[in-house]
Each structure stands twice: as C-alpha cells, then as structure tokens.
Amino acid sequence: MALIVQKYGGTSMGSVERIEHVASKVASWRAKGHRVVVVVSAMSGETDRLLKLAKSIDPRGSEREFDQIASTGEQVTIGLLALALNKVGVPSKSYTGWQVALRTDSAHMKARIQAIDSERLLADLDAGIVPVVAGFQGIDDTGAITTLGRGGSDTTGVALAAALKADECQIYTDVDGVYTTDPRVEPKARRLDRITFEEMLEMASLGSKVLQIRSVEFAGKYKVPLRVVSTFVDGPGTLITLDEDSLGGNVEDALISGIAFNRDEAQLTIAGVPDRPGIAAAILGPVGDANIEVDMIVQNVGADASTDFTFTVHKNDYDRASDVVKALAVELGAKGVRTATDIVKVSLVGVGMRSHAGIASKMFKALAAEGINIRMISTSEIKISVVIEDKYLELAVRTLHRAFELDQAKS
Amino acid sequence: MALIVQKYGGTSMGSVERIEHVASKVASWRAKGHRVVVVVSAMSGETDRLLKLAKSIDPRGSEREFDQIASTGEQVTIGLLALALNKVGVPSKSYTGWQVALRTDSAHMKARIQAIDSERLLADLDAGIVPVVAGFQGIDDTGAITTLGRGGSDTTGVALAAALKADECQIYTDVDGVYTTDPRVEPKARRLDRITFEEMLEMASLGSKVLQIRSVEFAGKYKVPLRVVSTFVDGPGTLITLDEDSLGGNVEDALISGIAFNRDEAQLTIAGVPDRPGIAAAILGPVGDANIEVDMIVQNVGADASTDFTFTVHKNDYDRASDVVKALAVELGAKGVRTATDIVKVSLVGVGMRSHAGIASKMFKALAAEGINIRMISTSEIKISVVIEDKYLELAVRTLHRAFELDQAKS
C-alpha cells in the first residue's frame, strides 16, 4: 500500500471520455489498495484559448487578470474528474490551488511554490477520499490567484508528492516515457528505462517537453521518485532516479542519454562593451530586474579592451529584452547590438560525459561534416549545448543521434 | 458624486466587443465623478455550457463539484472587464466571490448570502480603483465555492450595494426596463417608469425574468434603490422604489401594474388525504427536507373527511418531488397522486388592488369569455394567480392586458 500522486496532463483531460478513462485508471490503482492524490491540467488547448481571449482585449494587460482568467481551465477539469470518480464509486473532492493553500510568490504567470498545507489532503486520504487538485495554480499573500507558468501542473504534482511524502509521483502524459530525443525529429529515438534527475533536468530545461524543469528540480531536491508514463498505453514508462548506480552498471556504455533541443530561444549580443570587472552584472542586473530569465550566457575574451557579451532568452521575452539591451548599449558605450531569433539550441546530455573526454570534439566534428555552423557553445559537467541556425535542427539531431549510437539499446 | 453599484448580465458580457462597450459605460459614469463597483455575470450561455459538460458525466453528481465548475464562468468575465477598463485608462481589479469574502451558507446551487467584507472594496474605491466582482458566487464555511442559483448576479449586486451603502444599484440588462408583461407574448406591453418593491417582487417571483426575486427582497429589506436599465439603449429604465406615493399619485388609476407568468412550474396533488390538523405540515415537511422549494399551495375543503392537497414546484425539482409525494401518499393512506407539467401560472400584480374590489371577478370573467379553464387560484394582497393549461398562456396574457388597459400609459 503506497501513497501515490498522479498527474494527468491536458491531453489526458481532453474530453469527457478521456476524463472517464482517467477515472478508471485512478480507480484501478485505488482498488489495489493504494492511496491516491490526483493533480490535473486544463483540457488541452483551454489555457491557450483563455489567454488568447484575455490578450484580445490587451496583449500587455495586467498579469494578475491573465492568471485570474487562465486558472479557470483546471477549475473545470478538477470538478469533472471528481464527478467521474464519484460515478465509478470512488469518493472524491476537487480542490483549486487556493483551496489547498498552495502558496506562491506574486510573480504572476511564473509564480514559484512556497508552501502547501497538506493537512486537508491527508484528512481526505484518511477518510478514503481521492482529492483532485488543480495543477498550475496557487495563491499569493494578497489573495490573488497566481499561475506557475507552462507545464506548472507537473510542478504541482511533485510539490504535493513532497509535501505528502508520497512514495512515487507519476506523470501521465501522451508519451510513454523519456526518449533519447524527440521522435518527431528523429524516428529512431528510443525510450529510456531510467534516467538520472540531473540528466532529466538538462533534457527538460533544454526543451524536451516531457516534463517541466521545475518539477524535476523539486523531485531531485525532495528525493521524490518520478515516473513518466502514458495515459493511453500501459507500460513501465521512464523512472527518474537519484541514483546513478541504479542505471544498471551500464554508465560506462551510456556516455550520452539523449539529445535535447529548444526552438524557443532568441539571442542578444552587446558588441564591444568595455572588458572590465562587473560588466556581466551590469548587463544581467537590469535584465533580471525586468523579470526576464536568461538561459545561455557566453562572454568571449576580447581582442582589445572590449568584449562581446551574448545571452539567450525565451522568445516571449525577446521584445522586452531587446528594449533593455538597447538602452544598456547606449549607457555602457557599447559598439552595437546584434540579435537573432532564427536560432535553435541543440544539446547532448549524459552523466557518462563526466568520465569521458573527447565527447565535445566528436560532436563538433559530426556537425562540421554536415556543414552546420556553430554560433555559440556552452558546456556543463553533463551536457554540451550549441546554438545553430534553426533550419539545421533536424539534420543536427539526426546526425548526433547516429554519431552517438543512441538508437541502439544498451543492456 | 455618488457611489453606484452596476451589474451587467450575460448578454452585456457576451463578447469581447460587448465587454469593451461595458467598459466605456463604466468609464463614462466614473468620468462624471461617481465611484463605481461593477458586478458581472458569465458570458451568456457559458454557465449552461459548463453545467451541461458537468452533467454529461453525471446528471445527479455532487452539487459541490457543479458549483466548482460553473463558477468559472464569471471568473473569466471579471478578468476580461478589468483588462478592458485598464485599457481605457480606468484602474481596475477583478475579484471572485471568495476574494471579497462573500460568505454564503452551504446550499450548493442555491446558496444564500450571509456576509460580505466591504473593507477591501472600500479601500480600492478610495484608491481610485474600480473593483469588478464576480456575481452569482460565494464561499461557504468549509472553503467550498457556492453559487446563488440562476440570476444570482442580481442578488450579488444588491448585496454589495447594501454592504457598501451605495446610492443606487443599477441592473444593466438587454431590456430597457420593467414592462407590464413580456413583450414577446404581448407586443403592446409598456415600460413602467416606476414600480414598488412589493410589485416587483411579485412580478419577479412570478416569472418576469428581468430581475431575480432574491435581489428585490434584498433591495427592499436594505432600502437600496434599484434601477433596471438597458446596456444597449440609453434611457431612464425603471426605478424600483420603496414608496408608493412616489408612483406619482396615480395609484388610483394604476390598479394593476403588470401581468407575470411562469412556465417553469409543475403541479402535484395528493388526493383524498385525511382532513385533520397537521396534514399540511405532514406533507410539506418531507418536501422541505428534500430541499425542494414549494410555490403555490392550495387545499380545499373536502366533501367527506378527506381533502385534496395541491402544490407547485419548479420543474427541475419535479422528479424528486414526485418521488417524495408518492411515498407520502402511501404513508398517509391517500387515495392517489395526480401530477401535471403542462401548466402555466399567470398572475395579475398591482398595489392598487388593495383598495379596489372586483379585480378577481373581472379577471375570471375575462378568462371565461375566452373559454380558458382555471385549475388553481391563489391570491395575496397585491396579486391574483391562476394556473391554466400551458397552451392558453398567450391568449390569457393578451386577454388580461387588454381587459385591464395596460397598454395605455397612465399619467
């Protein structure tokens, strides 16, 4: 008898029939004697529809109001799933974010969870009730509804699993696990049985859309075993685990776990800024103050007393970041500003990289052999990322997938 | 400079364009120096759509979940209107029912307001902000979302006006005032400049769909001047007033203010129950316990030691009421149960009735002349109601409108 938090995404909640299918899945886990808490997203497309409606009035309107509107998506699906569970004989009650006191900061549309009151949910579980909790949303100190940003329902699931000390957090989605890369780009992509939190973090943050990055961070931090499973096809999915050894002693073979990519970034360069201490902070300070998240940061040694400073941001933040950077360029006496939105980031990810040299050069060689020019490079212990022109995305992913033999199962 | 609560219904909020029209109306009141609080309904059809979705899973599902789902309708429109107001330069913030601590009892889908915390709204008004509050919804002591039942947004408007001690509560709708009867049934129906709370109460409760009955009760109880106005056509609308004298001294002429009707009732008769003290309570007790509201009640003197007991309920409650009554008939040793759903109630309403005899006989004569059979009669100080077969509705209303000369303006 385990305590399991199950999170079902928008596709799983896409229609009344699918919601009834989810209810039958939850019922079968409960019939095995498990205690289950369910977290759900809005019906697929609904959050987009609501935000489009809101932005049709004012695209730059109050984010407090955007959250007020967008959060209704899950409020509908929690009610529907609770009704469907009751109908198949499983006592259930739905809860919005504020109803379980899921407290966040006040950063509307990208709020961060601060605390969850687990008492109410534990009381329900003790009474044999399956609580159905709205993902993606919370409440701030002023009583305003906040949302956690795209994919936030995963984070809600993991945060609840941590607060309830659940045995496992299962993320149900329309894919049956984590793949070596996106099968829509490389049909030979292969499902991984296990992957470490660190690798998953890099895969998620770099654009593999299976899980939201923050949910993996949370899961790693609170040691919540996380499993990605399909709602529609039975199978073991992919277990995301803390322990590298549990990968089956095949770390030596598995140099690389996967190839992630991200189409949603834009690049901004301030060219010819004075190369002096504090310049990075002088640039990234105002960017951070504008609440813009920066991903890659590259600063190169300059030829004279100046240097080029480049960073990438989400395309959604590009307009605002561009305004900030142009003002900064004048202020700092830079030579100019260069920006690009027709870029894509491709990354190799693998814990095996730690103990093996030569991965980077093998990667760059493979790309060069296909005539793909690299614009930016950034490395960490378990990943190497390159920024290339977006038209080369598919070619680059397939080339690397073959070069690192990712289509061949390791045993 | 007045404090005005304006309530806009579903038709007024029916599209982005209409919401922007509402924003411009609110802005123009504010430009005149008034302080404005706005209450809104869901987009027309949205509450029905949401409830249909919920009931497609389980028509007899948990009303707590129905409310959780249905209450999202206004949560969307408050956000949209706040955005639209901000866009035209009017600072605005949206609030759900629970965000203004609109406390109700726990009778889901027909909850009653118990208290409103006006502090937050008054602070907003002092700061020059126009608060936009969700109608129709509140929160109970367990933290569950409740709804007030159909037309509940009117009640929210009046309750807020009372709590804020507003100078006037304006109900914006798609009609330009209260009419002598429904113009769709009698094209000669005429707009009334003024009507008393009592008359309005009878008009509303008897099916004139302009205002929800509870809102008129509230307005009368807390002496909130209430005005029905059109969102789309400028005009004075109809003022609902406490004072009969303010009707312009024409009470003598205005014997009858209007003709109301209600198609939503069903009739249940327990025939041949023992005619003994306490029998009405023995019947209506279990009906009330089942949370079914009863409208007309008629008990006639029986020929022997038994009597026929008839009452009407909303058609929505008919199935449940029918179950209760059948069980009661067995228990009380009644001769049988008769029910009818093909009925309509037509009522004459007017404060002038108090001082004038002969209204009832004039009414019955007019109906008889058209061959309309009367099934039930019920009277009060300012109204006379008859139940007839539903196919005679239009004929009855037109006949009475003409008989009481309601198409002729009184001055």
From TrEMBL, chains A, B:
<keyword id="KW-0457">Lysine biosynthesis</keyword>
<dbReference type="InterPro" id="IPR001048">
    <property type="entry name" value="Asp/Glu/Uridylate_kinase"/>
</dbReference>
<dbReference type="GO" id="GO:0009089">
    <property type="term" value="P:lysine biosynthetic process via diaminopimelate"/>
</dbReference>
<dbReference type="InterPro" id="IPR041740">
    <property type="entry name" value="AKii-LysC-BS"/>
</dbReference>
<dbReference type="GO" id="GO:0005524">
    <property type="term" value="F:ATP binding"/>
</dbReference>
<feature type="binding site">
    <location>
        <begin position="7"/>
        <end position="10"/>
    </location>
    <ligand>
        <name>ATP</name>
    </ligand>
</feature>
<keyword id="KW-0547">Nucleotide-binding</keyword>
<dbReference type="InterPro" id="IPR018042">
    <property type="entry name" value="Aspartate_kinase_CS"/>
</dbReference>
<dbReference type="InterPro" id="IPR002912">
    <property type="entry name" value="ACT_dom"/>
</dbReference>
<keyword id="KW-0808">Transferase</keyword>
<feature type="binding site">
    <location>
        <position position="74"/>
    </location>
    <ligand>
        <name>substrate</name>
    </ligand>
</feature>
<dbReference type="GO" id="GO:0009090">
    <property type="term" value="P:homoserine biosynthetic process"/>
</dbReference>
<protein>
    <recommendedName>
        <fullName>Aspartokinase</fullName>
        <ecNumber>2.7.2.4</ecNumber>
    </recommendedName>
</protein>
<dbReference type="Pfam" id="PF00696">
    <property type="entry name" value="AA_kinase"/>
</dbReference>
<dbReference type="InterPro" id="IPR036393">
    <property type="entry name" value="AceGlu_kinase-like_sf"/>
</dbReference>
<feature type="domain" description="ACT">
    <location>
        <begin position="348"/>
        <end position="411"/>
    </location>
</feature>
<feature type="binding site">
    <location>
        <position position="184"/>
    </location>
    <ligand>
        <name>ATP</name>
    </ligand>
</feature>
<feature type="binding site">
    <location>
        <position position="47"/>
    </location>
    <ligand>
        <name>substrate</name>
    </ligand>
</feature>
<dbReference type="InterPro" id="IPR005260">
    <property type="entry name" value="Asp_kin_monofn"/>
</dbReference>
<keyword id="KW-0028">Amino-acid biosynthesis</keyword>
<feature type="binding site">
    <location>
        <position position="179"/>
    </location>
    <ligand>
        <name>ATP</name>
    </ligand>
</feature>
<comment type="pathway">
    <text>Amino-acid biosynthesis; L-threonine biosynthesis; L-threonine from L-aspartate: step 1/5.</text>
</comment>
<keyword id="KW-0418">Kinase</keyword>
<dbReference type="GO" id="GO:0004072">
    <property type="term" value="F:aspartate kinase activity"/>
</dbReference>
<feature type="binding site">
    <location>
        <begin position="209"/>
        <end position="210"/>
    </location>
    <ligand>
        <name>ATP</name>
    </ligand>
</feature>
<dbReference type="GO" id="GO:0005829">
    <property type="term" value="C:cytosol"/>
</dbReference>
<keyword id="KW-0067">ATP-binding</keyword>
<dbReference type="InterPro" id="IPR045865">
    <property type="entry name" value="ACT-like_dom_sf"/>
</dbReference>
<comment type="pathway">
    <text>Amino-acid biosynthesis; L-lysine biosynthesis via DAP pathway; (S)-tetrahydrodipicolinate from L-aspartate: step 1/4.</text>
</comment>
<dbReference type="InterPro" id="IPR054352">
    <property type="entry name" value="ACT_Aspartokinase"/>
</dbReference>
<dbReference type="InterPro" id="IPR001341">
    <property type="entry name" value="Asp_kinase"/>
</dbReference>
<dbReference type="Pfam" id="PF01842">
    <property type="entry name" value="ACT"/>
</dbReference>
<comment type="similarity">
    <text>Belongs to the aspartokinase family.</text>
</comment>
<feature type="binding site">
    <location>
        <begin position="173"/>
        <end position="174"/>
    </location>
    <ligand>
        <name>ATP</name>
    </ligand>
</feature>
<dbReference type="Pfam" id="PF22468">
    <property type="entry name" value="ACT_9"/>
</dbReference>
<feature type="domain" description="ACT">
    <location>
        <begin position="268"/>
        <end position="342"/>
    </location>
</feature>
<dbReference type="GO" id="GO:0009088">
    <property type="term" value="P:threonine biosynthetic process"/>
</dbReference>
